[in-house]
Amino acid sequence: MYPEPLVAPMRHELTRLGVEELRTPEQVDARLPQPGTTLVVVNSVCGCAARNARPAVASALAHAVRPDAATTVFAGQDAAATQRARAYFTGYAPSSPSIALLKDGELVFMLERWQIEGRSSDDIARDLTAAFDRHCASASPVA
């Protein structure tokens, strides 16, 4: 684990957008099965999270159509919460960063690290907004 002062700015990049941080398995289980759509960002200290994933999420959440809720777990920092969130990503190996979209607690869209690393944040944001357009109600507030 990295010292919290080092990762706090990385957490803040998402929480300042209204993304809810889930730091325990109990918080994950209380939030992810909820009705509606939930974005789950598996945050990370790696460069592709900083350069690609977090900026893509910021851009995508500005889209007119977005999930009902946006959440994040931090791989390597909040290990138990991250492991529990990954249990919802049926059929996918653990990967960080990664970005999932759940609908009524079921996985409907997934971006793994290999789909994030080496791509521009604009390309990733386009993937996310296309998933939002397909699976989310129009102009849903992120709560």
Q: Could you outline the blueprint of secondary structure elements for this entry?
A:
Elements: H1 4-15, E1 20-21, H2 25-31, E2 37-43, H3 47-60, E3 69-74, H4 79-86, E4 98-103, E5 106-111, H5 113-116, H6 121-135
Helix pairs in contact: 2-4, 3-6
What would you note in describing this structure?
The protein has 143 residues and is an alpha/beta fold. It has a single domain, classed as Glutaredoxin (3-Layer(aba) Sandwich), CATH 3.40.30. The chain is 42% helix and 19% strand. The chain has a five-stranded mixed β-sheet, sandwiched between helices. 37% of the residues are buried.
Number of domains: 1
Task: Output the structural class.
Answer: alpha/beta
As a whole number of angstroms, the C-alpha radius of gyration is 13 Å
Uncertain spans: none
Shape: globular
Give the full name of the CATH homologous superfamily. Answer: Glutaredoxin
CATH fold topology? Glutaredoxin
Ends distance: 29 Å
Largest sheet: 5 strands, mixed
Per DSSP E runs of 2 or more residues, the count of β-strands stands at 5
| Quaternary assembly | single chain
Determine the strand fraction and express it as a percent band: 15-25%
Describe the strand arrangement of the main beta sheet, using strand numbers. 1-3-2-4-5
Mean pLDDT: 94
Question: How helix-rich are the residues, as a percent range?
Answer: 40-55%
**Regarding CATH, which class?**
Alpha Beta
Instruction: Report the CATH architecture.
Output: 3-Layer(aba) Sandwich
